[in-house]
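The record is kept unedited without comment:

——
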Amino acid sequence: MQIPVIVLDFGSQYTQLIARRIRELHVYCEIWPYTTPLDKVKAAAPKALILSGGPASVYEKDAPHIDKAFFELGIPTLGICYGLQLIAHKLGGSVEPCEAREYGRAFVDIDSPEPLFEDLVGGPRAASGEGGSRIEAWMSHGDQVKTLPQGFVSLAHTGTSPHAAVGDTKRKIFGVQFHPEVAHTPLGIKVLGNFLFNVAGVQANWTMNRFLEEQMALVREKVKANDRVVCGLSGGVDSSVVAALLAKAIGKQLTCVFVDNGLLRHGEKESVERVFRDHFKVDLRVIDARKRFLERLAGVTDPEQKRKIIGREFIAVFEEEAKTLSNASFLAQGTLYPDVIESVSVKGPSQTIKTHHNVGGLPEVMKLTLIEPLRELFKDEVRLLGKELGVPDHIVHRQPFPGPGLAVRILGDVTEEKLDIVKAADVIVERELRQSGHYDALWQAFAVLLPVKSVGVMGDNRTYANTVAIRCVTSSDGMTADVGDIPVRVLSHIAGRIINEVKGVNRVVYDVSQKPPSTIEWE
């Protein structure tokens, strides 16, 4: 199959977001490492090539580069941030450190609307007396293009970047200094669309149904007639969609294993048994491993160690259960791309943020071969896929829950007493947000138990008890997140209930951090 768009990854944390936005435009694309040989790209015959951003400077030792010959293939090319700087550097322009670095929101003044900015905004800015218009964009760079290569013209600028967008219309090579792929560039997807459709002539013909058909075909090709797949089922969106996909693709060759590790939300086990045995009619095995996990986590305070312990223990439980099944050869997981990009660099030189239990936590030697059909998808795409598969709405629209469970919502060591506290607080947070009508508008909402005690007064008596933090965020994909706008009266009511009803808590705080710089989960 021809690949319409190839994204070359130079290490940006947002590289997969580029692919995600392209998919939203119904165009199939793949992310390839910048080290991909020229001949391989040429053989794929893409309609368009996109160079991602990245943390390096083009002049740094060991900075990621590609051969100049890439720009002689005649493939329409768009460079984003570092990609723009690389284009300028390779084709005879110059790049230098910014006098004033740009990080965050900026306003881009458009000097020439065609082709990247066509139909983006209205008429000229009357106040400036200049032709062109202004759009909001997200910047994240310390270098900028100083001089343009021959044949290029400046298409847009900011107050500090004279070449915020550039282009050579004859060679169909363009670049933007900002990040059109992130939500903080509201019209960014239109910029990408203008490049793909107006410049590269790409066709919009890729859908989630097509993705489903492709993944089912890949599963059937990999899983032979006598093989059995063991699916790690948690009851969350990701593992539920994986289970539904595999049930449709291979039917009775699937066995789902639910591990009750003691780190789950209140009532999780009962809900999973009810939904998957009754609705999906799958072969479901429920393993009580609560004591085992708590013993392994005893005294462990480092979040990375927690994640790896939980990941290894999950695999160990799966392998033990697999021994009771004839011909069990594969382990299916609901790994998503945000898990991957924050854990390890699999397609480029991006930096590790944190290890996810089902990525970096896997042992080096594992007897079961992994099947991860959702590995290239974001959460909202998984929800769309779930609808294609007929997964019930109350599962499809469930808020994300971390693979390591409540272990990463208890800062410090994990004990049964602490688990009881955070479970009880979490139930109150969810119920009150649902009651007040705010729950469905949030990406995630949960309680975190902090390793902080403070003085309080309850019933005229002095207390010295625990602190719970409430975290509510809005997001479209989990890669960036804003603070949930929850009224103080609602937060105050939640805090009052937690303090009154959850033994051992006398203080509640609200987390107002964005991602980035903070992550959504505290660990």
